[in-house]
Amino acid sequence: MDFWGITHSGKIRQQNQDVFKIFLDEDNKNITVLVVCDGMGGARAGHVASTLAADTFVDHIEKHIEDVRKQKNVATNMTEAVAASNKAVYDKSNENTEFAGMGTTLTAAISTPDGEVVVNVGDSRLYHITSQSIAQITKDHSVVEDMISRGDLTRTEAKRHPNRNLITKALGTNKKEAPDVFFLNLAEGEYLLLCSDGLSNVILDSEILFELQKSRSVKTSCETLVDMALSRGAPDNVTVVIFRKQQRDSTSEMQVPAV
After folding, report:
1. By three-state DSSP, how is residue 146 classified?
2. SS3 call for 87
């Protein structure tokens, strides 16, 4: 498998509240788990929320990795992992007044030989990219997405709307929060791209597609997309994770998060 991830605080924010995690099953290298979280609730609290959610999600999947290897209850395990992440953040926010009200987005995917399963809460996105097309698989849980759905706003207008960063669902803000679930079947050589809104708010889908079409490596594409966001002011934290589906024994790449 071929994957890479970068997170950057951006040009304006002092702290990075974004977190990504990538888990490769060492016993079955055709199984990869990808997670992006974008925290909220103040600099420290936001980072605590996103880190706790991402860690809890991956820990839950690791505990049930035998089911994933057998292609058994993958979507159920992912939904339960989201519930565990939500509980971890919610309990932490209620135990310590310093973290009161904190929350985080979570977008995650598991790639297996029989296909991919995706879950999301919030407005961090997942795209499916082929040699010819790009499709946003997740649907933003956000104020502007609701306005677009009602016909009150175009997608172009949404990128400039003052409430574009307001989300309608997040992990940890309620006792329970159910994710959206999506199913894909990537062909060899196709991509998953996960990102926080710090990327999607300043980079067009067509630009992402163009970069992946000419990509020399997933590492180079991650670096280029983050550099593009930074060149446009990067008012928010920026995170991008790219996964390219390949056969077993392919070279795998991973970058430790950068602050």
Report:
1. helix
2. helix
Place of tokens 């009602």: 150
Distance between CA 134 and CA 127 in Å, rounded? Answer: 7
Listed residue (85, 124, 101) closest to 7, CA to CA: 124
Q: In which region does residue 214 sit, left (phi positive, over 0), alpha (psi from -120 to 50) or beta (all else)?
A: alpha
Mind listing the pLDDT tens digit for each residue in 15-39? 999 999 999 999 998 999 999 999 9
Tokens for 134, please give them: 């790009």
The closest of 77, 42, 73, 71 to 59, measured between CA atoms, is 77
Q: Cα–Cα distances in Å, from 202 out to 152, 199, 208, 231?
A: 21, 6, 11, 10
- Alpha-carbon distance of 202 to 116, in angstroms, equals 27
Compute how many other C-beta atoms are within 10 angstroms of the C-beta atom of residue 15: 14
Query: How would you label 89-101 residue by residue, b for 16+ Cβ within 10 Å and e otherwise?
Result: bbebbeeeeebee
Retrieve residue 39's tokens.
Answer: 């925290």
* C-alpha of 173 from chain center: 18
pLDDT tens digits for 103-147? 999 999 999 999 999 999 999 999 999 999 999 999 999 888 888
Cα separation, 152 vs 158, in Å, equals 10
Structure tokens at 185: 């079947």
Parts of the chain with a pLDDT under 50? 250-259
Give the whole-angstrom CA distance, residue 28 versus residue 15. 36
Return the closest-CA partner of residue 193 out of 180, 181, 207. 207
